[in-house]
Amino acid sequence: MNPTLKLAVIVLIALEVSFTQVWTVNVALIVVGLVILLLAHIRLRTLLWLTAVPLFFAGALVWSLMLRGNASPHFLIVLFTRMFVYVYLGATFTQTTAPLDLTRSLEQNAKLPSKFAYGFLAAFNLFPKIRAEVATVRAAALMRGQVLHVWSPQLYFKVILTAMTWSEQLADAMTSHGYVEGAPRTYALTIPLRSRDWVYFVGSLALVQVGLCLGLP
Fold it and tell me: Where are the transmembrane segments (predicted)?
């Protein structure tokens, strides 16, 4: 499926789930997401992590509402399953879509300005360097006898300064390679927007609408 339409359908379904209380649709979306993840050959460790984290937070939320005693069992089930819907839908997108394909699709199909597309791709690719920079800053602080915790503002201030330097270097590199904002550009790889992509898009939304209509009181 086209990455832009895939992102759009997931966002729209998540928004609809947020404003409805049909737990059967939530369970159906969870099952569909789990099947897609298994077909994508997701690692078992990743799948367990995607299940354990929402299970903890959803369980804590439901337990706190049960202690207050003012929530119906139906509402508790809706909240519990809704948390898994968000996580599994997001995972189906991230596990089946390459960031480069998404960037190309947003630029070509959604007509996103190229500077935003390349900025998104650059930010994604800088994540490993940012993690390495955080480790370097913490190690340098330890050598001075200073412990920088996760919540230490000094740690992130230094990393932000480094990231700003990287952004300037990236802008200079793009300019030196002939990038001109707003100029006509060709594409090394074209992301097609086929008719079947629209069929999947409309069909997915239609099925959710049917489920919500049948499940509403």
Answer: 7-40, 46-67, 74-93
Query: In angstroms, rounded to a whole number, what is the distance separating the alpha carbons of residues 115 and 128?
Result: 21
Q: What is the pLDDT of residues 71-102, one digit of tens each?
A: 788 888 999 999 999 999 999 998 998 888 88
Question: Tokens standing for 147?
Answer: 């412990």
What's the half-sphere exposure (Cβ side, CA atoms, 13 Å) at 5?
18
Task: Report how far residue 55's alpha carbon sits from residue 52's, in angstroms, rounded to the nearest whole number.
Answer: 5
Domain segments of the chain as ranges: 3-103+191-214, 114-177
- Select, from the ranges 92-96, 104-108, 124-128, the one with the highest average predicted confidence (pLDDT): 92-96
Q: Which amino acid is it at 208?
A: V
Long-range contacts of 160-164 (CB under 8 A, 24+ apart): 162/133, 163/126, 163/130, 163/133
Q: What number of residues does the chain have?
A: 217
Structure tokens that stand for 107 in this block: 């630029």
How many whole angstroms from its chain centre is CA 9? Answer: 13
Map tokens 């920088």 to a residue. 148
Is the pLDDT score of 217 beyond 70? no
